[in-house]
Amino acid sequence: MEVLAGTNSTEQKDLNAIKPNWVNAQFSLSVVIPVYNSELILPRLIERLAQNLPKFSNKFEVILVNDGSRDQSWEVIQQLANTYNWIRGIYMMRNYGQHNALLCGIRAAKHEIIVTMDDDLQHPPEEIPVLLEQLTQGFDVVYGKPKKERHGILRDMLSIITKKSLALAMGVSDVSHISAFRVFKTNLRKAFANYQSPHLLLDVLLSWSTTRFSSVKVEHNERYTGKSNYNFRRLFNQALLILTGYSTAPLRLASFIGFMFAFLGLCILLYALGIYFLYGGIVPGFTFLASLIAIFSGAQMFALGLIGEYLGRIFNRSMERPTYVVGSTCGGNSED
Q1: d(CA 92, CA 325)
Q2: pTM of the entire structure?
Q3: How many other C-beta atoms lie within 10 A of the C-beta of residue 60?
Q4: Tens of pLDDT, residues 218-253
């Protein structure tokens, strides 16, 4: 906040008193951005960050993690790192996924507060102070929830289901507005410092060290260029990972369904025996019998499918596949 010309010292003190907490705190920030096929967007994104970061941080860095881009994104990152001394680039050997790239950047962060955002300018850098101000209210993690979603109806519905599932897996029922635009305290990464698995969700890892989550409404812009890499299939797979990778709720659901169908079977048996003893006949109908077989078989296959998902997760972890592999770095004190 700039002091207007002609104000005296008393007026200036009054102006300082009404400054939001994030201005007075002057956080040091590490902005972590996973990059995938964004060569056309990156220069504009960095330009916006260069205009805004000095306004609310006395010390900051931007970590661009190239997640196996197929275009010239890494070359653009190298050029930007040569232009701005506060930019660091990390080149990953292949595409590991957004959350893996985020984990890589988070582990490399040097400052006390970490900001994560997408590379497509849907998360405006101008909104970072809104998240920081909320962070000073006693929270450890703050999400920026869009004032208005910019996706289709089907995508928005699946996104809501995914976020609800994630809140369930995190064990934080009041967190329903989870997004990739978030700020959190860097020391939270101690809880997952030794995490090694190719499948991860950053928000679940953050819940291992805190339950103080919050969210605030922020602007959510249209993608600057190109289209989102998250389609229906990827969102469905992510929801499945949430439920089977970090929660036993599906297994409990399978047990409950199994119990209910066993109870139903017992009721049907008692009904058939009652008909036999009261009327001296049996329950007729091949359709009735076939329907029962189909129902019970479906319940069994459902339970077996869930068990298979859990076994698959265990198998993948037993192979000790790396979470990510860094090929090279640039900017700061790193060597190309």
Answers
A1: 6
A2: 0.73
A3: 19
A4: 988 776 565 655 555 665 666 666 666 666 667 677
